[in-house]
Amino acid sequence: xxxxxxxxxxxxxxxxxxxxxxxxxxxxxxxxxxxxxxxxxxxxxxxxxxxxxxxxxxxxxxxxxxxxxxxxxxxxxxxxxxxxxxxxxxxxxxxxxxxxxxxxxxxxxxxxxxxxxxxxxxxxxxxx
Length: 128
Description:
mainly beta; five-stranded mixed β-barrel; 10 strands; 0% helix; 60% strand; globular; disordered C terminus
């Protein structure tokens, strides 16, 4: 059995991301990654998405340009009724010596950061 804390250091190797601080959310069934400059495109007839991932903290903010196959798009409605389209990707997650491959974890939503939130990667509990 692996014990996981509220905040853990993880990697997303498919995206070339290491040393990412993740918030483990026991109430969530999906994951989210703060992203901007989101651009859908096609590669070899398949749908992909290109985006800038916001990593680190307010003190040490890092950005990384990433590309991933697009799984789907979902419209999410906030509690105040504001609708937003989110792109859904699937990627590999590494936590310590454990690795969950793309299909074995819930897809990540790419969402625009809303200040003053920190650029945290939030992972739903169901991926464990």
